[in-house]
Amino acid sequence: MGYVPQHALDNLKKYSYKGVDKSLVSRYVLQPFWNWFVTLWPTWIAPNTITLTGLSLVLINFGTLIYYDPKFLTEKGGADGPPHWVYFTWAAGLFLYQTLDAIDGKQARRTGMAGPLGEMFDHGCDALNTTLEVILCARALNLGRSWWTVASQIATLANFYLTTWEEYHTGQLFLGIFSGPVEGILSIVLLYTVTGFTGPEFWDRDFLAFTRLDRYPIVVQYVPKLGLNDAFMVFGGFVLAFNIVNSYYNVYKSRVSSGQGPFIPLLFLLPFPISVAMEVFWLSSPSFKESQILHSALFVPFLCAWGLQFAHQVSRIILAHVTKQPFPYWDSMWIWSIVGAIDANLPRLINRPPLIQNTLPRTALFVYVTLAVAFLSYARFCYLVINDITNYLGIACFTVRKRDRAGEWVGASEVNIKKL
Hints:
By secondary structure, this protein is mainly alpha-helical. It has one domain: Four Helix Bundle (Hemerythrin (Met), subunit A). The protein contains 16 helices and four strands. The protein has helices at about 5-10, 25-35, 45-70, 70-75, 85-110, 115-140, 145-170, 180-200, 205-210, 215-220, 230-255, 270-285, 300-325, 335-345, 345-350, 360-395, and strands spanning about 20, 175, 400-405, 410. A two-stranded parallel sheet has the order 1-2. GO terms for molecular function: diacylglycerol cholinephosphotransferase activity. This is diacylglycerol cholinephosphotransferase.
């Protein structure tokens, strides 16, 4: 047992998945489709294989961005963008990702493989998808390398962190009437589809003129001029505010009903804004006239490194949830970000040049090393946790098999799952 303590592994026996989905779209439209779609998969295919297949589709989408629009990584705002048909593949890939993400749990119940490893694996893939979709969505909305894209990253990660924090303190996953995994993903699928027909320049149109609200003087007087893409971001901000209130309401009810203090969980929200503050402080460094990272080819690698660090952070929360361990308020990857942020801001702090990031090439080296360290750290976490859980429970991660009493691998159909 190399990563998870023995007493925590023993708590895996107490794990049981609980979820609430209040989405009308999910209940009346998607659930019937998912129930049919899962029957197309043979029972010898492991649920985690389905989950990983969904993430692979998103990685392919990200690969098409790099291949067809490399200037998005090297020039401000990109060039003309990828061919319009690429956006349709992004829409299809994301919709299939959502579908596969929804049926992996159903496949787990079909094969007798439902358990804590599946939840860990599912949330880990979702955490990686979050940042990848931010980058793809920024390209489709023609946001380019801007603070709007940074705001999109913060809002999207905040929603995911809230859901994870809420599940830790309530013991169940809540999906409200408008949730990221359902309506949020469908909104982005629609966005990709529209961009496929119109091109990303469509989203630069004036919001008031497009909606004809500019005909009303009172609207023009009080509503600032925004593009459609900016308005989309503002709408996302309102959704985030609603989710914050709703998530805390669920936590409040759960804590009160169990006789616990309802305000203590608020302290465990602090790790997220602290981590965000470090990344924003790093991005806003005054080393050059424009930030070395925000307006350079380093922006996308920086976001990817940030996303991997976030995936590590929330995966540790889910691990604490399924093993009933204390909330992980500290993450070791913060040390690296603190060093990067302070070094880049030495001109602001003590009026001297950065020690490491004093030229663009050296900044590039530091950002790519950060990306590599974040990737290796998260990969190590995944390997060790999967290894500990599969060894303890006597299961395989990508095979529908369990160990019998003699320690031999057997097919799921050949063993009484409930007795193991």
